[in-house]
């Protein structure tokens, strides 16, 4: 029985992540988010072992099984990973709330452009959760996981992308940016409409998951306290200037933060030039860079007032931690280069030998020592 397999895996996860371990990790992360002094060491997680945590797959049982297997494999490490389930990501999620059909090409998912002029904004309907749409399917998946696990696993919201990028999908980025200058009233009307849809969908997931809800789609950094607010992907911010951001992006991110109790923004690419204004945005709590190092984020203007959610390699960790301590930065670090590897990625666990395990233990001892409070 599938239910028995899931129960067995959950029992193993409970053994690998006992309550005292989970409680300590939550305390470390809570202190970071609240700007308090560290507990015993600074919090960190390792890069996921082999799970594509941004998978577009929407088969609930398959996604749950993959996630449980990933959690079990990770149990050999002593980072601050906390067992939880992240649905995945599809670029068509937000557009589907407005009845927009999805496009799939070679495994990449997007959506049709249904807006062809600023005048067409007036035809955009109120958001709805039609059965079978991408947005409805994510809710179905979250409900399935809660039921299948008996509430034994925390659940994240999907990465549904932020308002600007949803509008860019439905209208085209170039047309959207031009519209901000040419017809600002219509631009702001569209962005307001889609922002409220984002908030509504976020709240729908939060209500569905209840006390099991973990309010971040940044699954590699997989736990935040309940008062952390919402996380929003704004990949298109790499294309705009600081002044454009302040006039045409900030009001909507600020609105989300005001309703949801704060905001954490993710962007891929190098968005250095807008980092100062992002950090200055009221309700902004954290920035996540998909392709910028912690050092680059600090150089661009992230200081100790904004949590830095970023990745660093094992070899670069000493320099990163020196910068963190010298400038009193608040870092939620994801460290890569720890898992036994082959030329094509993480080495399957069943192929680990004594040398692999010893090398990983050696590296982890170094990491834990460097992150210990008071360690120079």
Question: Would you give an account of this structure?
Answer:
- Helix 6 (163-171) crosses helix 8 (184-209).
- The longest helix has 26 residues, at 184-209.
- The protein is globular and about 65 Å long.
- It contains 13 helices and 12 strands.
- Helices cover 45% and strands 12% of the residues.
- The model has no long low-confidence stretch (mean pLDDT 93).
- Helix 9 links the parallel strand 6 and strand 7 (263-267).
- The chain is an alpha/beta fold and 376 residues long.
- It has a 6-stranded parallel beta sheet with strand order 1-10-9-8-7-6. A two-stranded parallel ribbon has the order 2-5. The protein has a two-stranded antiparallel sheet with strand order 3-4.
- The chain has a single domain, classed as TIM Barrel.
- The chain starts with a helix and ends in a 5-residue tail after the last helix.
Write the layout of secondary structure elements.
Elements: H1 2-16, H2 19-33, E1 44-46, H3 60-74, E2 84-85, H4 93-96, E3 102-105, E4 108-111, H5 134-148, E5 154-155, H6 163-171, H7 173-182, H8 184-209, E6 230-233, H9 242-260, E7 263-267, H10 275-279, E8 284-289, H11 294-300, E9 307-313, H12 317-327, E10 331-336, E11 341-342, E12 345-346, H13 354-371
Parallel strand pairs: 1-10, 2-5, 6-7, 7-8, 8-9, 9-10
Antiparallel strand pairs: 3-4, 11-12
Helix pairs in contact: 1-3, 5-8, 6-7, 6-8, 7-8, 8-9
